[in-house]
Design goal:
The chain is an alpha+beta fold. The protein has a single domain, classed as Thiol Ester Dehydrase, Chain A (Roll), CATH 3.10.129. Helix content is 21%, strand content 41%. The protein has three helices and six strands. A six-stranded antiparallel β-sheet has the order 1-2-4-5-6-3, with helices on one face.
Length: 151
């Protein structure tokens, strides 16, 4: 799967502080027996875009590890609308929709570039944890600020 990524600020909504655009092209290994992109691949795209967005705002996995704290997934919700096919150019638009004391909600729109159709919508609930103990931890202000969230 070929990938390129970029960040785009959004000025339309109070909820969306910063959008991140993660671009890719559907390759054969992403397809299921029906020649559509497998539903688990959509989830992988969402997780990849979340990681790339975090890295783009200065919070790579290495930086979280140095801090000793980081985000892990608590739950995912995906609504599939229309299939993605071989060769489709895709953009996963993602943003942090909000942060609470210990958790964060991230949303995604998976869009086919040639016609702008939304293929899927997703949401992930993340929790911030101590990486050694796995215990919940308060999200530091410097992390929330990096994603354009003020608490």
């Amino acid at each position: 799967m070929k990938q390129a990524s970029g960040k785009l600020p959004n000025q339309n909504s109070d909820e969306i502080r910063t959008e991140y655009l993660h671009e890719l092209i559907v390759e054969e290994d992403a397809l299921d027996d029906m020649k559509h992109v497998n539903n688990l691949v959509f989830l992988q795209w969402c997780l990849q875009s979340a990681g790339a967005h975090s890295k783009c705002v200065g919070w790579s996995w290495d930086r979280y590890r140095e801090l000793g704290f980081g985000f892990i997934v608590r739950s995912h919700k995906i609504k599939y609308k229309i299939p993605a096919l071989l060769g489709d150019e895709i953009v996963v638009k993602t943003w942090v929709a909000g942060m609470e004391r210990f958790s964060s909600k991230r949303r995604y729109h998976v869009i086919r570039q040639r016609d702008g159709r939304r293929l899927a919508e997703a949401e992930t609930n993340w929790v911030f944890v101590n990486l050694e103990s796995g215990e919940l931890a308060e999200i530091p202000e410097r992390v929330s600020k990096a994603f354009g969230i003020r608490r």
